[in-house]
Amino acid sequence: MAGLIEPIGLGEPRPANVAELESELSALWRRAAEDPAAENAVTRACTLTLLIYVESDEAAYEVTNLVAEVTRQNPCRAVIMMLEPEATTAGMEAWVSAHCHLPVAGEKQVCSEQITIRARGEAGQGLASVVLPLAVSGLPIFLWWRAGDFSPPPYFDEILRVTQHVIVDTARFSPSGRHLQDLAAWVQRFSGKIQLTDLNWSRITPWRQLIAQCFDSPDRRPYLDRLSEVRIEYEQDSVRLVTQRAQGLLLTGWLASRLGWDFLRSERRDEAQPRVFYFKSAAGTVKVVRNLKRVDNACGVCFTIELRAEGASAARFSFQRGPDGKVVRTLAEVPGSLPMGRSVRLEVLDEVEILNEELKLGVRDRLYEEALSVVARMIAS
Amino acid sequence: MADTTTLSNPLREGIRIHRTPDPCAMVIFGASGDLTKRKLIPALFYLARERMLPAGFSVIGCARTRATEPSFRTEMGQAIKKYLKLAAESDAFVESFGEGIYYVADDFSDPAAYEQLKTLLDRLDRERGTAGNRLFYLATPPSFFPVIVKHLGAAGLAKPKLPEESWTRIIIEKPFGRDLSSARELNRVVTEVFKEEQVYRIDHYLGKETVQNLLVFRYANGIFEPFWNRRYINHVQLSVAEDLGVEDRGSYYEEAGLVRDMIQNHVLQLLSLVAMEPPATFDATSVRDEKAKLLRSIRPLSPDQIDEFTVRGQYAEGWVGGKKVPAYRAEPKVSPTSTTETYAALKFYIDNWRWADVPFYLRSGKRLPKRVSEISIQFRRVPHLLFKGVGTDGIEPNLLTVNVQPNEGISLRFCAKLPGATMQIRPVQMDFRYGESFGAPPPTAYETLLLDCMLGDATLFNRSDAVELSWELVDPILAHWREQGAKGLAFYQAGSWGPAEADALIEHDGRQWHRV
Question: Mind listing the pLDDT tens digit for each residue in A128-144?
């Protein structure tokens, strides 16, 4: 297993020139290979081009550290695009570096390259002319939009034209929810051409898996058709409120789209009350309650989902992650059986872990598109 | 209680995450044994903790040891903590996993114990939603296999509880028989009770990531298949080396020997994957058909060829990893005049269009310098020397190496010019290592195979015909060696790469063992 990450050859910012950047990268590899301190040969590895959009120096610095981690599992050429459209002085500069993972004795050192481009003012319009030639030929291109709302400016069109995968994170979107609607529209527009991934959707994939597992048994499956209430509860004062809010919406959208519920209306008497969404299912009305709970020392890890089936044989299925943020306790209470619980690991996944998985998968997720479409209708109401 | 009409679960569809099997219960016979504690329970715990097992998944341990359910749970909890190489485990997970562990004391021949087992399985269906799906795992000594299988049949546990709606499967650990006739007999007993598609004969080598990757490597890359034949390949070597001796398995090893323990199963399985024809699809039937076809194409050694094409050895005293180790004959529970082989080297030919005249050298041994399993495919030398002043010896033939363990990966050796004014050529290595390239350790073989079995995917398990075909190949060799007694048994120093006779076997053909 590779050890620590060693950044090498951080180049100096200079006016962006593709040929010079490529030659600087070659020189960097030569230096790495000739480094007398390096006991092992250096292997250059690349499985994709990762374009990363950020909006500030701080974000670029932060993302550089993340890229170092990403390249452990997904060796790639990373191109960080830092745009400052409001800057008064126009200009584009770039520099190169490499991320090397220190190997254990006797193993080879594997390195990935990074190019950082800073475009100020109207120079941003020429971004594609520098970025596109730097994409590694023959390998897929991922665009990671690591900024706020996903709203690529028109001069991104050329980049999007050659991009196979766009990765966004609705946890970074503004709280209004309007941008989720915009995203749903964007997905429709590019459907089949560009695959969209939402890291926030990936964060709830294990939750979806846990919920699904509860209904695998043939005698539990019929309860799915009789669900009458869903409660999604998270922390009111959480630093991750936006993340959790979007997760709650996406979970609701997923349940509704998979179970064939039609959205009816939403209701909220006042800010202090939970938001309630009503859906129509084949068995009647389903109430989805989104409840914000006051938790001491809220940190955004507590999350509870409860599904209820009412009627003659009422049943309850709950999934709860407590403040330790690592364990989810599930409980199924159905008539004729003892309550059955289990604990499984479900930690709050960090950004790199999720991104790594998405880079490996790189496939279209129709379920997300369908869930997002329901969410757009919920928000519009 | 809700209706039990079978309906698909719409929430299952399209979740891009690990495959999760149907709800089920797993019964382990031989639950007090080492395999259960070291491998099975830790693998199941890991799968459960990582949400890869269904809700309500339950394990029933069956063993001859008198134990109570709480004491068995405690013992399994301790095994998880001891053998799982993970950071400090949360007790909550171990406790939660323990809630699904049950115990039935069984001397394997008492019909009442099977009735008790049946009652418990039915109870788990009701209480934990295991849906009538059962997986039996035979982790006992092989002598108990027929007994258990017959009793499972007699108790009505071999057939699916709900026809068309539930499944029953059985995993049988190796060794599957000790020769051709016992393997056939065991197959007969097993298939009298279970259908072949219910039977999963496990060989944990096949669960290793690199073994599966070998198939991907061959059939997902267009550039290799055209060269994968006698026209371009000079020979193939399969080496499975262990630095360990027989440890406390002396009495078992005296009965088995290296060929039964390694060659008949692991090594021939690897060989079949390396050499088989492309299957039509990547499913159990197609892949196993091709493997069987390949095994059928291996030319059996005639009695007069055995001495020429095989070498058997036994380790003498020596040094391994800086420690002095005793000779095999001095190991506990081993006869001081034992002729059991702890090393074997064999040469096979495959009689088909693809491999005609290409030798396959197989070697495996205990107390070798290190633990390593490797497949080396050596390509032919270049036909014509183009570079003046460079001897053909300076141009090493291309070598494709598949490392099965411990560092799973694939590497390719090719020639490159050294920088400079003169034409100097040196071999360089292009490596792909799992740990390095994907940064995450691959799942263990047992995790992979247990999950595959629960999912009904038998691709990586052995079919009865392959087992019998393998015995057909090694049976005459074992019979010949038995007749020879000590004659022809070569001794090698523990910690060496085997007897000199093994080097002579390959050198006779103008080749050398690849340094692993």
Answer: 888 888 888 778 899 99
- Please give the Cα distance from B192 to A15 (Å, whole number): 78
Sort out which chain B residues have CB atoms less than 8 A from A343's CB and list them. 92-93, 95-96
| Amino acid of residue B444 | T
Q: Which of B20, B96, B439 sits opposite A2 (nearest CB)?
A: B439
CA angle (A291, A296, A300) in 5-degree steps: 60
Distance CA A186, CA B351 (A): 59
Cβ distance of B11 and A224 shorter than 8 Å:
yes
**Dist CA A354 CA B281 (whole Å):** 32
Q: What distance in Å separates the CA atoms of residue B191 and residue B210, rounded to the nearest whole number?
A: 31
Give me the helices (H) in chain A, please: 18-34, 57-73, 127-134, 157-162, 178-190, 199-203, 205-214, 221-225, 241-259, 351-361, 366-380
Contact by Cβ (8 Å): B339, B489: yes
- B491 pairs with which residues across the strands? B314
Residue B189, pLDDT > 80, answer: yes
Task: Quick: pLDDT tens for B110-123.
Answer: 999 999 999 999 99
Q: Residues B6-44, buried b or exposed e (16+ Cβ, 10 A)?
A: eeebbbeeebbbeebbbbbbbbbbbbbbebbbebbbbbb
Structure tokens at A180: 């989720």
Lowest-confidence region among B5-9, B145-149, B239-243: B5-9
Contacts of B60 (CB under 8 A, 6+ apart): B25, B26, B27, B28, B101, B102, B103, B104, B117, B120, B121, B124
Report residue A2's pLDDT band, with 50, 70 and 90 as the boundaries.
Answer: very low
Q: Do the beta carbons of residue A127 and residue A83 sit within 8 Å? A: yes
Q: Distance from B436 to chain A by nearest Cα, in Å?
A: 6
Structure tokens at B282: 């990547």
Average pLDDT of span A231-244: 83
Structural tokens at position A351: 């950004």
Q: Please indicate whether, in this complex, the C-beta atoms of B438 and A337 are within 8 angstroms of each other.
A: no
Residues A142 and A164: their CA atoms lie apart, in Å, by: 6
Residue A353 to residue A69: CA distance in whole angstroms: 9
State the Cα–Cα distance between residues A338 and B123, nearest whole angstrom.
Answer: 11
Which residues of B form the catalytic set? 266
A155: pLDDT strictly greater than 60 = yes
Greater confidence (B436 vs B186) lies with: B186
Lowest mean pLDDT among B177-186, B214-223, B298-307, B420-429: B420-429
A101 to chain B: closest CA residue: B436
Residue A37 has pLDDT above 60, yes or no: no
pLDDT digits (tens, 9 = 90+) for B79-99: 998 888 656 656 788 888 999
- pLDDT of A8 > 90? The answer is no
Please tell me the distance from the alpha carbon of residue B491 to that of residue B311, in angstroms, as a whole number: 11
